[in-house]
Amino acid sequence: MTEKYIIKQLSIFSENKAGKLAAIAKIFLDTGVSIQAFNIAEANNFGVVRAIVDKPEVAFNEFAKQNYALQYTDVLAIKMKDVPGGLYEVANLLGGLGINIEYAYAFRSGEYGALIVKVTNPREAALKIVEAGIELLPAKDYNF
Amino acid sequence: MAYYNEKIETMPKGELAKLQYQELKKLVTRLYDSSAFYHKKMDETGVKPADITSITDITKLPFMKKTDLRDNYPDGLVCVPHDDLVRYHVSSGTTGKPTVVAYTQNDIDLWSECVARSLVSCGIGKKDVLQVCYGYGLFTGGLGLHYGGEKVGATVIPASTGNSERQIELIQDLKTTVIACTPSYFVHLIDVAKKMGVDFKKDTLLRTAILGAEPWTDAMRRYIYAESGVTAHNIFGTSEISGPMFTDCSELNGMHICGDIAYTEIIDPKTGEQLPPGEKGELTITVLKKEAIPMIRYRIGDITSIIEGDCACGRTSPRIDRLQGRVDDMLIIRGINVFPSAIEHALLKNPYLTSHFMIEVSRTGPLDDMLVKVELKPDAMTDSITGLMEMQMRTERALRDALNVSAKIELCPPNSLPRFEGKAKRVIDHRVI
Predict the structure, then answer these.
(1) pLDDT tens-digit map of B73-119
(2) Does B133 or A110 have the greater pLDDT score?
(3) Contact (CB, 8 A) for A39 and A109
């Protein structure tokens, strides 16, 4: 029942060099894939580009074809009120449920905000979150 | 003029050749009888101990190479009873297997005497305080200089490597007169001393440096003298022949290879033909008196030439010029020999890497930096930055363990490093010596 909340994020390995992001963005352009949310994490000389897109399989296949190292990562999108305290409400609840966030990034969609979270066990976490009465955005809103 | 062993060091060349012949004959006869490895090698070449009738007959004997040590790892070349061994040293090999060298007490004594003769030829004696900043341990540099220094009666400080400010303090407080280290490290120490407000010329008694384990130039010798007032001598040696052994004398014009201990040849690396003095080729050394692991016509891989003519110091042993490169792709990183094949071997053990890599060597500061670029396998990708950094660190550890020298690892995307058709050129050396 929580499967619908599992969003397939693309995690793409990239060198930390000028022009590398443009090369990745070009692949999204060429495949006609639309980016819903996006984030770059960097370490030393490399980075991991994390993207939530409308057609993950299309993008994944093209990146793989072009020899990128990438993988799918299951993440959750938690709906946040776009008011002061919106993040606090969500973070406080996750803390109360004992759910540790490995990383998170936020974006705004329409009138509300959304917090993308990577947690250790997303299916179990999704169940707890829904039971606690917080709204999770279903994958179909992002990965069509 | 001071000598450590005047009779031998100034022996007329004809007599020296006779002595060399006698030692070679003894050595070859012993090896043919006691070493399965060398017996087989001589049989394959079709040469018997009886064929050696003068020192020039040495060209009839087969060569030895580093691969012989590797293939007989760890102790297949030892040809004395194990009870007679008193020490091992270990250096990095051409692949994953290190090179092991073994010593009897006589081997240690001979090595120490050789270093002692060299130190005396640099004007070093009882009055001197010798600070040895080569690594102590499996590497031969530290203990080699240490034993030689004690033999000439100098006061030896086993400072080993690292902690530069402490080294400067020791130089000042213990009134060091001689330092032994790599040339790049000494240049580094000059800089560190300046930052500490220490002027080597005025504030210390340091006047002599014994520099080796990596290539350097006469220009660097002049720079060192101008900056520190220290006269820098070149020292040569490699673990297979014992360790550091031979230096240039006070004439600073080539390193004397003690003729009763070692026989020097320069050969054409392609044909194996012996080359005349003055011509550049591959340095090949026979250690005439080594017991535990004798080395006959050992191809060291360094390119140099024999310097013609007599030396004004009175020593009759031949001299070799500064090392001018390698016949193979061996790199010298902070004084440690590193073979790209050994790097490849260590990298291939990591299941998350492809087999492609590049080595970039630079000297941004005074010390060498080695960067090894490796490729992540597509299926090893993880979303976790910590996981990727752990792969990087594990690879760094694996290389450090295999090479005895640290390298920085750069994780690169799959298919991003150059592919080679034919011989791979994996090393980019930015260093200007």
Answers:
(1) 999 999 999 999 999 999 877 776 788 999 999 999 999 999 999 99
(2) B133
(3) no
CA–CA separation, B275 vs A19, rounded Å?
54
Looking at CATH, the fold of the domain delimited by B1-328 is given as: Rossmann fold (3.40.50)
- In angstroms, rounded to a whole number, what is the distance separating the alpha carbons of residues B231 and B30? 42
C-alpha distances (whole Å) from B17 to each of A62, B51, B262 are 73, 17, 11
Say whether A13 and B376 touch across the interface (CB within 8 A). yes
Distance CA A119, CA A106 (A): 15
Least CB–CB distance from B385: residue in A9, A15, A48:
A48
pLDDT tens, residue by residue, B354-382? 989 999 999 877 789 999 999 999 999 99
Please provide the CATH number assigned to the domain covering A4-73. 3.30.2130.10
Q: B382: which chain A residues are within 8 Å (Cβ-Cβ)?
A: 11, 71
Q: Show residues of chain B in contact with A102, CB under 8 Å.
A: 384
Residues of chain B with CATH 3.30.300.30: 336-429
Distance from CA of A11 to the nearest CA of B (A): 6
Residue of A42, A50, A69 lying closest to B376 (CB–CB): A69
Q: Looking at the complex, report in whole angstroms how far the Cα of residue B399 sits from the nearest Cα belonging to chain A.
A: 18
Contact A69 B410 (CB under 8 A): no
Q: Could you tell me the sign of the dihedral formed by the alpha carbons of A95, A99, A104, A105, in that order? A: negative
CA distance A18 to A11: 19
pLDDT higher than 70, residue B311: yes
Q: Where in chain B is the domain with CATH 3.40.50.12780?
A: 1-328
Local structure of A97: helix, strand or coil: coil
Q: Which of residues 372-411 of B touch A (CB under 8 A)?
A: 376-378, 380-385, 388-389, 392, 410-411
| Cα gap B289→B130, rounded to integer Å | 27
Q: B353 and B412 in contact (C-beta within 8 Å)?
A: no
Q: Which CATH architecture fits B336-429?
A: 2-Layer Sandwich (3.30)
CATH number, span A75-141: 3.30.2130.10
Q: Does B382 contact A9 at a Cβ distance shorter than 8 Å?
A: no
As a whole number of angstroms, the distance between CA B237 and CA B97 comes to 21
Mutation to test the B interface, candidates A27, A42, A46, A72, most B Cβ within 10 Å: A46
**Of all helices (H) and strands (E), which one includes residue A125?**
helix A122-131
Name the residue facing A43 among B377, B380, B385 (closest C-beta): B385
CA distance A73 to chain B (A): 7
